[in-house]
């Protein structure tokens, strides 16, 4: 009986294991609840870090936390979110109309009439049509665009959740940091270091995104100007705004424009714009973004590149933000461990030295007594 009783775990151990399992299940359930809104929460966190100095100034002038947070959220919505959402939604709707126009019989007839002017282009297009169902692919794209519109509606909902969370991130910043810090087994200085690294990473991500979007818009606007297309400054600005949105991009401007140029018979201009957009504009983001973010994070470009690519593969478009943030937390924690490990031998060495000194003094004292 006693042997069988000793095989069972003690009651306190069983309760601890049960509590641990219940905690993991509760955390998993909480993750499933919050999971759909992780992009919104990540965006709210980014905006809270970036706009905190402005909010602090507003709060100092007004003195009422609720009103100050509401004014800051309204400012963020007016400056950042509303232009991006408005431009993106309008362009997606125009893309639906444009694709439907492209696959119409009248447009196909105009396209073939333009092809008839060049035998080389006619042969090339005939070869493409024999290997690829161009019209079928365009119909497939047209069928996917309404789903993209539904996705834009979901994006609007995410923006609403982000603004809602931003209000509390700004108003209750001290309480949020204290609550998170109480759950982290680090000292106050170590917590401050990790939080500072996360904040620097967010600033680096925003700076890299804006800088790359500006470069892409500038490159696109310059090509529009060089080809003699109308309103190059306006379209460059639109491309910059679209380049800031992960689900969209500058290609929503230059790709339809190159197709329009081809439909109009301007084959050389269409080829130049398509090549410039597909190679220069698109790869400018891929090359510049890891470099700029890595400089802001004070890290090498290679781990930042893998953090961005891995974040995109794991989290989707939000991985552009969550990937580098994860890397920042990992680097911050490793830095804490490195300092603890490097500082641990120092007291031991001092203790050994003091002990050795005491032993020598004791031996010397005994020698004097002898």
Distance between the termini: 65 Å
Number of separate structural domains = 3
Largest sheet: none
**SSE order:** HHHHHHHHHHHHHHHH
Q: On the 0-100 scale, what is the average pLDDT?
A: 75
In total, how many beta strands? 0
Structural class: mainly alpha
**Portion in beta strands:** under 5%
Question: How would you summarize what this structure contains?
Answer:
The chain has 370 residues and is an all-alpha fold. The protein contains 16 helices and no strands. Helix content is 88%, strand content 0%.
Protein architecture, described:
- This protein has 370 residues and is mostly helical.
- It folds into three domains: 1-30; 38-182, no CATH class; 184-342.
- It is 88% helix and 0% strand.
- It has 16 helices and no strands.
- It has helices at 2-7, 11-34, 38-50, 52-62, 65-102, 105-115, 119-131, 134-171, 173-183, 188-226, 232-243, 251-263, 267-297, 301-315, 319-343, 345-369.
- Helix 10 runs antiparallel to helix 13 (267-297) and helix 13 (267-297) crosses helix 14 (301-315).
- It is elongated.
- It starts with a helix and ends with a helix.
- Mean pLDDT is 75; it is low at 346-364 and 366-370.
